[in-house]
Design brief:
Shape: globular
CATH topology: Rossmann fold
Number of domains: 1
Largest sheet: 5 strands, parallel
Distance between the termini: 19 Å
Structural class: alpha/beta
Helix content: 25-40%
Number of strands: 5
Number of helices: 6
Strand order of the largest sheet: 2-1-3-4-5
């Protein structure tokens, strides 16, 4: 379950903000092709782990694999997970992340996160493709928000989907 308040201190996630959460398995989908993207992914995944969740982070699973190995590993990660957290930043969200959202749609809850200030005309105000926004169980649109705010909003979304104590929410994978 969750960690004690003083378990881990991060500059962007202050001591005292940890809380008990209903541990779940999360597939973390997002672009991973620049140092900034990879650092953002690690920071958010670390905070989710510190809150007691198991996180499948593709950039940790894929080194040394060919295209077929990456595909099989990531599909297995999505199948393993209770839910998907997907980063929708970029002028147009990453194509691999979009595929992962499509694959998960209808199978498990999807939390979309966008901090990017660029907007796509015709997106209904979301800034990105309606095929993605409509696949979301919960959307977090927080333009230029700091990582601490995003961590809090993602944890709040997870609590709505999988309430502490296991009552209500969404059915989990048990395999």
């Amino acid at each position: 379950m969750g960690l004690a308040n003083d378990a881990i201190a991060h500059p962007w996630w202050p001591v005292g903000r940890f809380r008990d959460t209903s541990a779940m398995r999360i597939y973390f989908a997002g672009p991973l092709f620049s140092a900034a993207e990879r650092d953002w992914n690690v920071a958010l995944a670390s905070a989710l782990r510190a809150a007691g969740h198991e996180v499948f982070l593709p950039q940790e699973q894929e080194p040394g694999k060919d295209a077929a190995g990456i595909f099989a590993t990531d599909v297995g990660g999505i199948d393993w997970a209770d839910g998907l957290v997907a980063i929708m930043d970029g002028a147009d969200p990453d194509s691999g992340t979009c595929w992962e959202v499509g694959y998960a749609y209808g199978k498990k809850p999807i939390i979309l996160v966008r901090t990017d200030m660029r907007r796509n005309q015709g997106s209904g105000g979301s800034g990105y493709n309606p095929m993605l926004t409509e696949a979301a169980t919960i959307r977090i649109d927080a333009i230029a928000a700091p990582i601490g705010r995003i961590v809090g909003e993602v944890l709040d979304a997870l609590d709505k989907l999988f309430p502490p104590g296991g009552s209500g929410g969404v059915k989990r994978n048990v395999a």
